[in-house]
Structures are given as structure tokens and as C-alpha cells.
Specification:
By secondary structure, this protein is of the alpha+beta class. Among the domains are: 324-484 and 502-527, no CATH class; 645-776, Gcn5-related N-acetyltransferase (GNAT) (Aminopeptidase, 3-Layer(aba) Sandwich), CATH 3.40.630. Helix 3 (20-41) crosses helix 12.
């Protein structure tokens, strides 16, 4: 193993670890191991005994568990409330921040992957109060600091005092144990002392996150202590006293189980958590311990989620009836964005209930009633339908999370189907009532689902595949556990009888596994969201491009964009559909009044399709409209334009251009502008120059915001060429012309490798002089990316990133050199912007833009 590690570069290990197959395989392996371990540990336990222990649970223990759950969530709510007060004082009410922390954890506790779903839920709340991604990141970081310092206090204390029994978990000498504890507590004290020495900030590159003072740090540590200890005590009071050696030992096992559960990606660590607790405590084969773990799931995971659902449902109902005033209205405004993830959790919970119900034996007394009314075939089909419906509800939950209207319709239909199946398979009226309640809540949440994504609602991403597989595996284990009194035989598969619970369970499990396999395979094969099929460029677009004074409008003729055209054909927007976003290139072209309407139409179209909407390389002209859309405006560079009315080649800064033009004239080189109508005879020659130029640069063609050498595209424009005295073309540039002689610019400027070094400079000088002679007002030199962006501490986070790239990215691209070259022409600089949804969507938009323009990071680096 050591040799293998030494022969693989670090970067290759990272690529292996980040590979989708590895990211899926590792959690699945953990889940599978946990399920097998759980099955082995509970091999001698019977379901009837677990049911008896559930019914015999002490009411005092249940009340204590509920009390400790409430205390734990108080600690969780203090994380965010204190962090918000530090990062964004007076911007978010204290009660909103506290509820956001508690609700985010309640949602993530049920859906799983807490670092993803919990963070997203809190971001939705805080962004409604105007907090940007940097502020939310700071809040989450400070919240985690409270959790980590609380954890350090607990473990440091345990190691120092090393109570009896702890050595069974940590088999190390007492001196080492005490020394480690002293180091941990010493680090915590040093951290608090460091905070006390002044206002501290955590800095990384050009970014900084404010850290709490010593007093606030101590309070956060207390909140962490309250959360961690109370969460452990919820299970502690439920498990029989004789199953636990002592409290410190139990707490250590508990935290280890939580950590493994998080790594598994299983919702709430289902299966992994239970197996770790049973194994760590050494209590295999005990029905009362399994009953305690089941009660813990209900009390610490499901009860807080149900409380969040009831609160959100109540305020949603009041909002529908327009009865909200004052503080209630503020709460609804803050928590309305949580409706989709909560609805996803409801569907997930309903699906799990149907799956687990299908794995457990039916009540024979109720089956006896059905036996008098229905044939056996109805019971068999209803049982199978109920289990498959449960699986589909878990799958559709992702569509609800994404606000898809079709997912809501399908979920409502599935819940009705589950309700009927619950009654027909065994008169399970309790389960039917829960389906009815789910139906009512989802019906109340209907306005939140409006998106019309064209992709299937049964398509899953990697994380959701893992979670669904974990839930199906857990339901399968529950079935094996409930039917453990029967020995397996092949005949069970074909046993159709009124008492054939095991047979029905096996058939339903197989059908569920096959269904999930088909869904997962289809999701992985068709993993990319659908894109709009490109159509030929409409004539109205060509007409409006010709009539536009902005030369950048010509890039719309590349053929790699779709078009949104106004009803009266007076304006259009050119955009690309990445499958996840609709990204427009530049300002709308045409009539300003209709252009504003088109901006709204594109935004609304993207929203209906469940996609983001962004506008790339826009000017100041329509900024108010983009702000009205709720988009964030980020500066991404500056555009250089030269005033041709005063342009000359005189002066020291233009010495190279002047010398190149004079040298070309002396050597017999000739400048010529070839009209578009006469290009056909030159196209092969121009292509050979372009291909040779690309090969010499070891580059590939760009797209979206930059032109590429495509004959259908190049043939739209006049082309400026530089010919040698023998008539051979050595350099060329296609010309963008603005209407009314307002502006002229070029797109591709390429030269023949091995030709004279002055050819490109001479071509540019001649083209600018020719433009001035034709009467054009401006000559556009194009954009300088990331130029003019302030990289200051108080600037928005993405401005700081852009400024950092501009200052330190010369290894990949000569940003400063490009601006310095254009500066020699004494141009007028005007800013260009990106309008983006902001927050967590911003880096995704940047990545999609990189793919559109350069084909991805590999091609960009090339």
C-alpha cells in the first residue's frame, strides 16, 4: 500500500476521490456494512418483542427525551441567533435567526446531508433579509465554531478526568489520555484568550470572516455544550439503564455513531447510527435497545420536523386567507422559501412510512375483515403498489425540493394511491390518516410549486440516489428482521396466501430494488438537464443586428444561441440554455421598451423551467431592470473604446503600430477590406490560416461571447486582410459594424504562423485608420476581463474574487498585460457586468459560462 501511494501523484488521488463513482461507492459501502452489521447484531430479536417494548416504554422516559430534544434545539437555535447578531447586526430579527437555525437542522435531520440541506435552508431565510453569500458563510462558520468548541470542551474534559469505562473506547495509557485532554482544553482556552485580545477575523486570500469576542465565544461554547449533551441524553434516557456502562462511555459512542452517520449520506444516518450504537455498547440481541433506538428516531428526528411542518402550515394557511399582520407576516416572509424543502421532507417521510409498512407483517384481525370483502389478488396487488408508491414518493421528493409543479402533481397522485393501498392491503387506518394529513399539507403548499422543468421528476442526482438506496436498504432490513422467525426458501417467492407476509415482503423488495436500479441508471445516463434545441437564426434577428449601433450584437450570429423575440419583432435577447441556466449574452437588442419586457420574460421562462437566469457582459443601460428582477450585479471587467475622431498613430505609446505599418508599406504589403459577398473564393485560404494559428497556440475555438471560425458565421461579415507583395494573405480580421457609423470593431484576428511579425500590428493600425476614414465614431478594442474591480475588504465577495484573479492570475492569463496593451490607445473605459441570482448560484453561473465560452477548465488551460 505504501508503494502504491508513493507512485500516484497527489493530484491523481484527488481526481480518484472526487470521481462520481467513488463519491457514490464510499457511502454505499458504509451503508451496506452497517446493514449487515445491524442484521447480525439483531439476529436473535423478534419483532413482536420490539413491539411489546415500544408499548411498555416509560412515559417518564418519553417526557424526559422530549425535554432534552427541546433543550438541544434551543442550543442549536442559539448558534445562528448569536452568529447573525455578530455578522449582520440589526438586519435579521433574533427570533428569525433562532428559528432558522432550528428549522434548518430539523429539515436536514430528516433529509440527510446536513452540511448541504441545512446550509441551503438557512441561506434561503437569510437572503430574504438581504444578506449576501459572504455574510451567510460567516454565520455558518461561526455556528460551526460553537459546535466545535463545545465538542472540544466535552472531549477534553472526558480525557482529563478519564472516568471508568472510557478506556474501553480509547485503549491508551492514562497519562497519554490526560495529556491529550489537557492539550484540547488548553487549545480551547488559548482560542478564547486570542479572541479576547481584540476584534479578530479569519482571513483567506482577500476574504475575511469576523470572529466572536471572548464573551461571545464562551456563550457559543455553552450553546454547543447544551446541544451536544442534550442530544446524547435523548437516547440515554430511552435506553435501558443496564445496557449502558456509564454516561461518559455512552457519550463517546454516541458521537462516533453520529459521525459515521454523516459520512454515510443516509438520511439522518439511518442504519449506520443504529449499528454503531448497538455494536459500541455491546448490546446485540436486545429488543428493548432496538425499541429505544426507534423511539429516539421518532422523538429527535421526526417530532422536530413535524413541529416545523405544523408551524409552517399554520402560517401558510393564514397567509392564504390574508390574515397575517406584524410579526407573523415577517416570519412568513422569512420562512416561505423553506416550503419546498419541507414539502420534500413530508413526501420522503410518507414514502418511508409506506416502505416500512410494506416490510412489516399485517394485522391478521384486519386481514380477516378484508377476506370477507375482497379477493386475495387485491391484497397482493395493493401491498406491492403501496411499497412501490413509497419508493416513488422518496424519488419525487427531489422534484418538490426543486419547486417543480409536475412533481407536486405526481406527489399528490402518489399519496392518494398510497392512501388507498394502505386501506386495501390491511385496513391500516392509521397509515391512511397520515397519508390524508400529508395530502392536506401538500395541498396547502401548492403555490410554492410553479416550475415547469422539462426533465423527468424521477431523475435523481448522486446524493439522492445514495439516500434512496439507504432508505430502501433500511426498509429491507426491517422486513428481514420482522420475518426472522421464518427460514428462507425459494417457495416463498410464489406463496400467495392470506398469511404470506414474508412472501409479499420479498416480492415488494425485489420490485423496489429493480425500480430503483432503473431510475438510478436512467439518472446517471441522462444526468444532464435538457437543453433547448437550437434553431436557424431568424431573419428578424439578422435585421435587428444590422440596425444596432452596438457591434457586440453581431456575436448573436454565431449560431450557438437561442433567441427570445418580442411579439412585434422590435427586440430580441440571445441566450444559451446550459440545461441548468438560461444565460443571455449582452444587453437586449432593439427597442428599449420591448427589451425591458423581454428581460422579464426570460427570467419568468427560466423560473418556470426550474432554471437559473443570468445576463452576461451587460452595460449600465438596463441595470435598473436587472435589479428589479432581484438579480445581483457583479462587475466583470471593462470595455475599451477609442474615439476615432481624434485618433492618430502619433505619439510614443503607438510607436510599435506606426513602425509596423511603415514596415509593411516598405515591404509591399497591402491592406484590403473584402466585402462579405466576395468571401467565398477566399474562405479556404482564411480557414488554413485560422487552423494553423490555432495549432500554433495549442488552443481550441471559443464560443458564446467570442467568435469561432465557422464559414457560416464568417460569411456574415466584411473581412480585413493583409496581403504580401505576392498576393498571399498573411493576416485577417472579420469586421463588426455598428449602424449609423457609430462603432466598428473586429472579432477574430488571426495570422499565418511563420509570417512577418509585424503583420498583426500593421493590420490593426490600418483597420483603425480605415474606420476613421469611413466616418465611424468609435473603435471597440473589446473587454479587459476583471479590470477595474475593487479587491477591498468591504467589497462584495465575488468582486474580491475577481480582483484577486486579476492581480494573481497571470499564470493562466495575462489580464494586466491585456489592459496595458489597450491602454496605449487612450481609450474610454466603460464597465461591463454580470447579472446573476447571486449567493450559491454565482459560482455555478461562472462555471457554466466557462463551459460555454471555453468548453471547461481543461480547454481553458489549454
Amino acid at each position: 500500500m505504501a508503494f502504491a501511494e508513493s507512485t500516484l501523484p497527489h493530484g491523481r488521488w484527488l481526481r480518484i476521490i472526487k470521481h462520481p463513482a467513488v463519491r457514490i461507492a464510499v457511502p454505499i459501502v458504509i451503508v451496506v456494512i452497517a446493514i449487515f452489521a445491524l442484521h447480525s447484531l439483531a439476529a436473535h430479536v423478534k419483532w413482536v418483542d420490539v413491539k411489546a417494548d415500544l408499548l411498555a416504554a416509560s412515559s417518564v422516559s418519553l417526557l424526559e427525551a422530549l425535554g432534552f430534544t427541546a433543550i438541544s434545539f434551543v442550543g442549536i437555535s442559539f448558534y445562528d441567533a448569536l452568529a447573525v447578531n455578530l455578522v449582520a447586526p440589526s438586519k435579521v430579527p433574533f427570533r428569525i435567526a433562532a428559528l432558522a437555525g432550528a428549522a434548518g437542522y430539523a429539515i436536514s435531520g430528516l433529509l440527510g446531508v446536513s452540511y448541504l440541506t441545512g446550509t441551503a435552508a438557512r441561506y434561503r431565510v437569510y437572503s430574504s433579509f438581504g444578506l449576501d453569500l459572504a455574510s451567510v458563510s460567516g454565520i455558518i462558520a461561526i455556528s460551526w465554531s460553537g459546535f466545535c468548541s463545545g465538542l472540544a470542551l466535552v472531549f477534553g474534559s472526558l480525557l482529563i478526568f478519564h472516568p471508568s469505562g472510557l478506556s474501553a473506547v480509547l485503549p491508551i495509557p492514562p497519562a497519554v489520555e490526560t495529556g491529550t485532554g489537557l492539550v484540547i482544553l488548553g487549545g480551547l482556552v488559548a482560542y478564547l484568550f486570542w479572541l479576547a485580545t481584540g476584534r479578530r477575523q479569519l482571513k483567506a486570500g482577500g476574504f475575511s470572516i469576523p470572529l466572536p469576542g471572548a464573551k461571545l465565544g464562551a456563550v457559543l461554547t455553552g450553546a454547543g455544550l447544551l446541544d451536544l449533551i442534550s442530544a446524547a441524553l435523548v437516547l440515554y434516557v430511552l435506553i435501558p439503564a443496564d445496557a449502558i456502562q456509564n454516561l461518559p462511555y455512552f457519550i463517546t459512542i454516541y458521537f462516533g455513531a453520529v459521525a459515521l452517520g454523516i459520512l454515510s449520506h443516509s438520511p439522518g444516518g439511518l442504519g449506520v447510527f443504529e449499528a454503531t450504537i448497538i455494536s459500541g455498547l455491546g448490546v446485540s440481541g436486545r429488543s428493548d435497545v432496538l425499541a429505544a433506538l426507534l423511539l429516539y428516531r421518532v422523538i429527535y428526528t421526526i417530532v422536530p420536523f413535524i413541529a416545523a411542518v405544523l408551524g409552517l402550515s399554520l402560517i401558510a394557511g393564514m397567509a392564504r386567507r390574508r390574515e397575517l399582520t406584524g410579526g407573523a407576516k415577517t416570519i412568513w416572509r422569512a420562512f416561505q422559501p423553506l416550503v419546498p424543502p419541507v414539502a420534500a421532507g413530508i413526501a420522503l417521510l410518507a414514502g418511508v412510512l409506506l416502505l416500512v409498512s410494506g416490510s412489516l407483517p399485517a394485522e391478521q384481525s384486519r386481514l380477516g375483515v378484508l377476506r370477507e370483502l375482497l379477493p386475495l389478488s387485491f391484497i397482493e396487488v395493493s401491498h406491492l403498489v403501496g411499497s412501490i408508491t413509497g419508493l416513488f414518493l422518496i424519488v419525487v421528493a427531489r422534484g418538490l425540493y426543486r419547486k417543480l409543479y409536475r412533481a407536486w402533481v405526481v406527489a399528490m397522485g402518489l399519496i392518494v394511491l398510497g392512501l388507498l393501498a394502505s386501506l386495501l392491503k390491511g385496513l391500516d387506518w392509521e397509515e391512511s390518516l397520515s397519508m390524508l394529513a400529508t395530502l392536506a399539507v401538500l395541498g396547502l403548499f401548492r403555490p410554492a410549486f410553479y416550475r415547469a422543468d422539462s426533465v423527468s421528476v424521477f431523475r435523481l442526482n448522486e446524493t439522492w440516489i445514495i439516500s434512496t438506496l439507504a432508505l430502501l436498504a433500511a426498509a429491507f432490513w426491517i422486513g428481514l428482521f420482522a420475518q426472522s422467525h421464518l427460514s428462507y426458501r425459494n417457495a416463498l417467492w410464489w406463496d400467495f396466501t392470506w398469511h404470506g407476509d414474508a412472501s409479499r415482503f420479498l416480492r415488494a423488495s425485489l420490485a423496489g430494488a429493480v425500480t430503483l436500479a432503473v431510475i438510478a441508471l436512467n439518472s446517471l445516463i441522462t444526468g444532464k438537464a435538457s437543453r433547448k434545441r437550437l434553431e436557424p437564426i431568424p431573419n428578424v434577428v439578422r435585421r435587428l443586428v444590422t440596425a444596432s449601433e452596438d457591434t457586440e450584437a453581431n456575436i448573436a450570429l454565431m449560431g450557438d444561441k437561442a433567441f427570445l423575440v418580442s411579439d412585434d419583432e422590435s427586440a430580441f435577447i440571445a441566450y444559451a440554455d446550459t440545461g441548468r441556466s438560461l444565460i443571455a449574452k449582452g444587453d437586449p437588442i432593439g427597442d428599449a421598451k420591448m427589451a425591458k419586457k423581454l428581460v422579464w420574460q426570460l427570467r419568468e421562462m427560466a423560473d418556470r423551467q426550474g432554471k437559473r437566469c443570468a445576463f452576461y457582459a451587460i452595460s449600465l443601460r438596463y441595470i435598473p431592470v436587472f435589479l428589479d428582477l432581484g438579480l445581483s450585479i457583479l462587475k466583470i471587467g471593462e470595455l475599451a473604446r477609442v474615439d476615432l475622431r481624434t485618433f492618430t498613430l502619433e505619439g510614443p505609446s503607438r510607436k510599435n503600430l506606426r513602425q509596423a505599418r511603415n514596415r509593411a508599406a516598405r515591404d509591399g504589403f497591402v491592406f484590403e477590406v473584402v466585402p462579405a459577398a466576395m468571401l467565398s473564393s477566399l474562405m479556404a485560404d482564411l480557414r488554413s490560416i485560422s487552423n494553423a494559428w490555432l495549432e500554433s497556440k495549442q488552443g481550441e475555438e471559443k464560443g458564446f461571447a467570442l467568435g469561432a471560425f465557422e464559414e457560416g458565421y464568417i460569411s456574415n461579415f466584411d473581412v480585413a486582410v493583409m496581403r504580401s507583395n505576392s498576393g498571399e494573405i498573411v493576416a485577417f480580421a472579420n469586421i463588426f459594424k455598428g449602424a449609423h457609423l457609430n462603432e466598428l470593431s473586429f472579432d477574430l484576428m488571426r495570422h499565418r504562423p511563420g509570417g512577418p511579425g509585424f503583420a498583426v500590428d500593421a493590420l490593426l493600425a490600418e483597420l483603425m485608420l480605415w474606420s476613421a476614414a469611413q466616418g465611424y465614431h468609435w473603435f471597440s478594442l473589446g473587454a479587459a476581463p476583471f479590470s477595474g474591480i475593487e479587491n477591498r475588504q468591504l467589497a462584495p465577495i465575488w468582486n474580491r474574487i475577481g480582483g484577486f484573479v486579476y492581480e494573481h492570475g497571470e499564470h493562466f492569463y495575462n489580464f494586466e498585460g491585456l489592459r496595458a496593451f489597450k491602454e496605449k490607445f487612450d481609450p474610454e473605459w466603460s464597465p461591463i457586468y454580470l447579472a446573476t441570482p447571486g449567493g450559491l448560484a454565482t459560482p455555478q453561473i461562472f462555471n457554466e459560462l466557462n463551459v460555454l465560452i471555453s468548453g471547461g477548465f481543461r480547454r481553458l488551460m489549454k
